[in-house]
Known about the structure:
Layout: E1 2-4, E2 8-10, E3 12-15, E4 24-28, H1 35-47, E5 51-55, H2 71-84, E6 90-95, H3 97-108, E7 113-119, H4 127-147, H5 152-164, H6 172-181, H7 185-195, E8 211-216, H8 224-233, E9 238-242, H9 248-251, H10 253-284
Parallel strand pairs: 4-5, 4-6, 6-7, 7-8, 8-9
Antiparallel strand pairs: 1-2, 3-5
Amino acid sequence: MVDLPGRGTTYVTDTPGPTPDAPVVVLLHAVGCTGLLTWFPSIGPLSRRFRVVTMDLRWHGRGIQSEEFSVHDCADDVAALVEELDLGPAIVAGYSMGSIVAQRVWRRHPEIVAGLVLCATTDRFRSTVAERSFHAATGLAMAATRGFSRSRTAVRAARTAAAALDLQPDDIHDWAFREFRSTSPWAVGQAVAALGRHHSRPWLGRIDVPTAVVVTTQDHVLPARNQVALARRIPGATTHEVAAGHAACVLQSERFVPAFLEAVTTVSARRRGSRSSAAASASGR
């Protein structure tokens, strides 16, 4: 548990990278989930190149409890964590709801963002249709917990993550179900309502950090065409397609993780390249 001064406490995992100065990736989770439940298949592969940090967003899991939920507050929580742990500038990556929060982190705190990786994302929703879609996404997340027993890849990833993070669950299915149930349906409803008010289209074109968009091409919650359209609105954004649905981060992790790792690595390389060019230009002056 990490205390964010003036904001509250939240549950954080911090997995070291291969070297003390490895680039940092902050992972933001999907609605109705937790940091670990969304990202456990990705943490191990990512940590071979990066320092990997997850957090439970407010009202989710062991995240900050407050009177109200807003995407803006979530973005400010991320910035507070980056400052508290001295992580920045960091690559901020988000899945579904987490990708919305990641966009807002750049909008409100650009100085802490080295790059963005937006997965299964969108730039806006449309009233009740969007809310129904996100409720459907929550149902998929529940299906994902049931699917652990049928997905050998997910079971292997969960066991690896459990050992690395000292979770030691007696049963992977039970652990995942506990993670899922740690967020109340009422909290999910409030989060869905807040997400319905999100609209980043007017300022996406001003994003000035390396950005990658991981497109889930079989997504029935956030259509792939909308994800691709968002990527085209961000200057220089790369797209990384994965033939999977909205629960790809867990149930189809064998497809999602390689595409996600490629996206993060691309953003990191572009970040290093831009810093090197800036340094060369400065020395030339």
